[in-house]
Amino acid sequence: MNEHRFSDIATGIVGLALLVIPPLCWATGAPNPLAAPGDSSGRSLALLPQPMAHLVMAVCGVVVVAAAAWQNRAVRIAALGAFALLLDAGALAAIGYLPFMVVSAVTGHVDNLSAYLSIPLLMQLGMAVAAASLLWTVVDRPVSGTHERARIRTARWTRIAMIAPLFYAATRVLMALDVPGFAMPSMDVSGKAAGLGLALAAVGGTALTWGLIRPWGERWPRWIPFAAGREVPVAFPVAAALAVSVLVMAAGKAILGLVFTTSTEVAAHPMAWLPMLLWPLWSVSLALAALNYRTRRTTDPEIACRTRLA
């Protein structure tokens, strides 16, 4: 399948990068890009000494390359575990801040976009793409279950997956409005605008998640050029939801790490961090909603009938 070939290529490229970068860093004395506390996207291995960070990255690279070369389910699950270790909140933050960055660029602050050229962030984005595509190959198996049961489960998990981003968006709006309990005195106008951009991104993500249980999640709306009224390919929303699920889980892991290490930042602004404690639940519920959506669509009696007639 084309999707599996893309996964093999993306996973292979990222795996080779994970193998090559550690010896290059060791030879040049450069810090490991995933153990660079000064970069917000380079913190996943920051607690390790540089030699150990190099070793861990290289071992993960071996596992990831093996997953690309050998289509074995156990090896691919091990590679997903490697990605879970290396991924952090950087990729999701980059996507969340994109609306603010675009507006900043339009208003003349193009220099803000330089943050997207960070090597740790580019690595995080590459690993996120590879992990999401690899996850798709793991779950892309023959569908089992009934249409009605899948319909009920899709609705349940979709509603749960919509709670966390809406809660998060609400807190960012309250922070921007300086509501007591949410206000952050150190946040300037630019920071508030960025927060509103994050809220917008979260609401947009919630709307797309809602599509898993809405008619326009099965047929393109009339305002979509060249596709209006056509069936939405089942793989498209499933793959997109799984990709977001990977990003959210990586960010959730980083947030939980801050909470359990009693970060002073969390203690100083608990209401800013509280909604992020729901992110692991958001990740799991979104993945389950997507997989049950796939079962529901592929076991739909009408679709099955059309397939037989074709």
Jot down its keywords:
310 residues, 2 domains, globular, single chain, transmembrane
Low-pLDDT stretches: none
Look at the helices and sheets and give the structural class: mainly alpha
- Helix and strand string, N-terminal first? HHHHHHHHHHHHH
The proportion of residues forming helix, as a percent range, comes to 55-70%
Terminal CA distance: 21 Å
Tell me the fraction of residues in β-strands, as a range.
under 5%
Radius of gyration: 21 Å
So how many helices?
13
The beta-strand count equals: 0
Write down the domain tally: 2
Shape estimate:
globular
Strand count, sense and closure of the main sheet? none
Task: Give an overview in words.
It is a single chain. The protein has 310 residues and is mainly alpha-helical. It starts with a helix and ends with a helix. The protein has 13 helices and no strands. The chain has two domains: 117 residues, no CATH class; 163 residues. Helix 1 packs antiparallel against helix 2, helix 7 packs antiparallel against helix 12 and helix 9 runs antiparallel to helix 12. It is 69% helix and 0% strand.
List the helices and strands and how they pair.
Elements: H1 2-28, H2 50-69, H3 73-86, H4 90-96, H5 98-106, H6 119-139, H7 147-176, H8 189-210, H9 235-260, H10 264-268, H11 270-273, H12 279-298, H13 301-309
Helix pairs in contact: 1-2, 1-6, 2-3, 3-6, 4-9, 5-8, 6-9, 7-8, 7-12, 9-12
